Amino acid sequence: MRAFRALLKTECKLSLRGMDMFIFAICMPVVVVIILGAVFGNKLAFDGAAYTFLEQSFGAK
């Protein structure tokens, strides 16, 4: 467990040093979900569906 904790700590430090990881791994997915939510918000997946496009795409129910 100590080795895992040491590796996790090291990898977290390395990840935060690389700003490209922060942008593409954290910010980009959040922005994409916000844009999809704004565009497809409450639209049904198809005519007569009981769920929306976002619920179908992301498994949110």
From TrEMBL:
The chain crosses the membrane at residues 21-41. The keyword Transmembrane applies. Keywords: Membrane, Transmembrane, Transmembrane helix. This is ABC transporter permease. It comes from Paenibacillus profundus.
